[in-house]
Specification:
Length: about 400
């Protein structure tokens, strides 16, 4: 019927039935506001992914009751995740009231009987929406990470797998916000220790669905919905954060850094944008220099790939311009000696003040972290980092905690 009414207004609409709360026509509905929020959020986001809206409209015409409150919170959360908040991304309105003399038949014929009525006072706690406020606040805090803005994320509780996802995603955004994007290269490998981070391209599945359990007890005229999933807003937020990271995916380091630099530019992080573009250019020149040295027989090519050791990678990075102009043995040996001298001062392989400056000046591509670089067809297709050094850096960033429950 609702779809027919919409079509008569020239609107093609989907109708979603949300869980109920309280007594209605002799039936007791044991839903919670969070049940409504989770399901409404899912269906708003699902429709948004299909139709790509530029704004979300919430009709509050019939008053602000538990259902419109839950839907309103869900619409706000969706607008945050979709990047629509602000600039009329969410529109709330009430229609004009009908004239006082207007009368219409009931939309639903009344079949209510005395059965199911209860003598006790209703529990006002069933309309407590503090969980919805918490959910929207969490989604806002996590969404701020995409803008690379500093934010203090409250301690989070979730299941072990969701906690692991949260820690990995939050750490990756902290590395991005610190300008250490090169450490997130999708084709990166880590020697010794695998740091806990999310690499673009790991690929989230589809939009997670909330639990949709419905149990109907006809004898007692009760509808139950199971426990409302408090972790669902976190799962949805992580899905969108992972999708943003996945948009940077590239199988060569230079293209990857340029994609991240575009993200920096869109979010007004201009200095890091310039640093990353400079580093991408320098790494591109490094790859070209390696190809020229290989053509001269000064670097070995195996299976179409040039594998650079740490010393070779340092020599090429710091002397790429000279080696492109003079790809000869004398210039190459000189560059290798300088690289060996540089690395001899960094035997401890730890994040010192000097190394931290170098890391931030080169978008996360720091010599003490690089173990091996693979170049194919003039592109850097793989980098092996020292996992212990990367882990040291992550510890400096103090990623937020998530307590497993």
């Amino acid at each position: 019927m609702y779809k027919r009414w919409a079509r008569e207004l020239g609107v093609e609409a989907d109708v979603v039935s949300l869980p109920g709360i309280g007594l209605f026509h002799g039936w007791r509905f044991d839903g919670k506001p969070l049940h409504l929020f989770n399901k409404a959020l899912y269906h708003i986001l699902k429709a948004a992914e299909e139709h790509k809206p530029t704004f979300i409209v919430v009709d509050l015409t019939h008053g602000v009751n538990y259902q419109t409150v839950a839907v309103l919170y869900a619409a706000v959360a969706a607008s945050v995740l979709l990047g629509l908040e602000g600039n009329r991304g969410s529109i709330l309105y009430n229609s004009e009231p009908y004239p006082t003399e207007y009368r219409a038949g009931a939309c639903i014929a009344s079949t209510q009987t005395g059965e199911g009525k209860r003598e006790e006072l209703p529990q006002l706690t069933i309309l407590d929406v503090s969980q919805l406020q918490t959910a929207v606040r969490l989604i806002r805090q996590l969404a701020i990470l995409r803008a690379l803005s500093p934010t203090k994320i409250e301690s989070i509780e979730a299941g072990p797998e969701l906690c692991r996802r949260f820690r990995r995603v939050a750490t990756s955004y902290l590395l991005l916000a610190s300008g250490a994007a090169a450490l997130l290269f999708p084709n990166a490998k880590y020697a010794a220790v695998e740091p806990e981070l999310y690499k673009p391209g790991a690929g989230p599945g589809g939009l997670p669905k909330p639990d949709d359990q419905v149990e109907v007890d006809c004898e007692n005229r009760v509808v139950k919905y199971g426990e409302a999933d408090e972790a669902y807003p976190l799962a949805v937020a992580l899905h969108y954060l992972e999708r943003t990271l996945d948009s940077f995916y590239s199988d060569n380091l230079v293209d990857f850094l340029n994609k991240v630099a575009d993200h920096y530019e869109r979010n007004g992080v201009i200095i890091l944008n310039k640093v990353l573009r400079f580093t991408a250019d320098q790494l591109g020149n490094m790859a070209k220099a390696a190809e020229k040295l290989s053509d001269k027989g000064l670097l070995r090519r195996c299976g179409g790939a040039i594998r650079l050791t740490q010393i070779q990678a340092v020599a090429l990075f710091e002397n790429s311009a000279e080696l492109q102009q003079q790809p000869n043995e004398e210039t190459w040996i000189k560059a290798l000696k300088e690289a060996e001298e540089y690395l001899s001062k960094e035997k401890e392989r730890k994040i010192s003040e000097r190394n931290l400056r170098h890391l931030l000046a080169h978008g996360g591509y720091t010599h003490i972290a690089v173990e091996e670089v693979v170049i194919k067809e003039g592109k850097i297709t793989e980098v092996t980092y020292n996992g212990e050094v990367v882990t040291q850096l992550i510890q400096l960033l103090r990623p937020p905690k998530c307590e497993s429950r």
